[in-house]
Amino acid sequence: MGRATFIHVLALSSLLILFPTQAFAQLKQNYYENICPDVETIVRNATAAKVRQTSVTIPGTLRLFFHDCFTQGCDASVLIASSGSNTAEKDHLDNLSLAGDGFDTVIKAKAAVDAVPGCRNKVSCADILTMATRDVVMMAGGPSYAVELGRLDGLSSTAASVGGKLPKPNMNLDQLTAMFAANGLTQADMIALSRLCAHTLGFSHCNQFTNRIYNFSKQNPMDPTLNPTYAAQLQQQCPKNVDPRIAVNMDPNTPRTFDNMYFKNLQQGKGLFTSDQVLFTDSRSNQTVRSMASSPQAFSDAFVAAMTKLGRIGVKNSQNGNIRRDCSVFN
C-alpha cells in the first residue's frame, strides 16, 4: 500500500471513528410515502391535541428529542421504561427533569398511527418523536421544516450510557463546543440548538442556577455577567433554601414562543445558565449570537440546518434496531 493510499484509508477510518453512524444515509424525506402515507398528518394531529391539553408538551417534547439523540443516537432509547434487571436512560439523574408530557406525546401519537391498519407497527418510535418535535416547534411559532425519516428504534437503554453525554448548566464554551463536536455538530449548530434544550421554551428548577445569584464567588456572591435587575427578579422567585421543585421560566420575556428572544436576552445579561450567558460573553461565539439576535431568519435557517444534523446522530438500521410495538418496552 502506497503512502498516499495509506493516509487516505487512515483518514476514512478516523471519520468512521468520529462519526460511526453513517446509517443516516438511509434517511430521506417522505420515507413513509408508500408505507403509511398519512403518518405526518396523524402525528401532527395527535401532537396538536396534546398541546391543547398542556403547553408543557412543547418544551417537554423538545428536550426529550435532544436528550435521546445525544445519548445513544436518535433511537427512542430514552423512552424505554426501567425494569427489575435494568435501570434505563430515562431514570438517570440527568433525565429525571424530563417532563412526562413529552413521553406522553410520543405514546399518544404512536397509538394514533397504529390505529390505522396499514400503518400498524410500521413506523418507529424514533421517527414519531422526530416528527412530533418538528410539530411542537411549529406550534410554538417556530419554522416548519421537512424531516428526514427512516430511523429504527434502538435495542439498548441503560442509565450508565447517559453519563457525560448531556450539557450541564455550568459548562464553558470549550466544553460545550467539544461535546457537540463529538456528535458531528459545529459551534454554530450548538448555539442554534441551545434553545432546543428548552432554553427559550419551558422552565428550570431553582437549584440549577442559584449558585449564580447567591454563591458565585467570595468576591462576587452574584455572577457579574447577570443583569442586576434580572438577578433580583430571580432572587425573588428563588429565595435561599427554596424548595428545589420551584421552577422559573427559562425565557423571561416570551416563555411560550419559539423566537430569537433567547439571543436578545443574552445581549442583556439575561441568560439563565452559565452555559447560556457564556455564548455571548465569549468573543469566539459572540458574533454568532449577535447575528441570530438581529435576524430571525438567520436563526431560523441555522436552527433547521442544525436540527437536520442532530436528527442524523446514531441512526439505527436493521442490524442494530427494529420497530417497537410499544415505545416503552423492547419487543
Outline the structure in words.
The chain is mainly α and 331 residues long. It has two domains: 20-166 and 310-322, Orthogonal Bundle (Peroxidase, domain 1), CATH 1.10.520.10; 173-309, Orthogonal Bundle (Peroxidase, domain 2). It has helices at residues 3-18, 39-53, 57-72, 100-114, 125-139, 173-181, 187-193, 210-213, 228-237, 261-267, 274-281, 283-294, 296-310, and strands at 153-154, 203-205, 247-249, 321-322. The strands form two sheets. The chain has a two-stranded antiparallel sheet. Ca(2+) 1 binds at residues 68, 73, 75, 77, 89. This is Peroxidase. Keywords: Calcium, Disulfide bond, Heme, Hydrogen peroxide, Iron, Metal-binding, Oxidoreductase, Peroxidase, Secreted, Signal.
How many helical elements?
Answer: 13
In the CATH classification, which architecture of the largest domain applies? Orthogonal Bundle
Relative helix content: 40-55%
For the sheet with most strands, the description reads: 2 strands, antiparallel
Percent range for β-strand residues: under 5%
Lateral arrangement of strands in the main beta sheet: 1-4
Kindly report how far apart the N and C termini lie: 46 Å
Q: What is the overall silhouette? A: globular
How many runs of DSSP E, i.e. beta strands? 4
Low-confidence stretches: 1-21
The domain count comes to 2
- Pattern of helices and strands: HHHHHEHHEHHEHHHHE
| Top CATH class of the largest domain | Mainly Alpha
Average pLDDT value?
A: 89
Radius of gyration: 20 Å
- Secondary-structure-derived class: mainly alpha
Stated plainly, the CATH topology of the largest domain is called: Peroxidase, domain 1
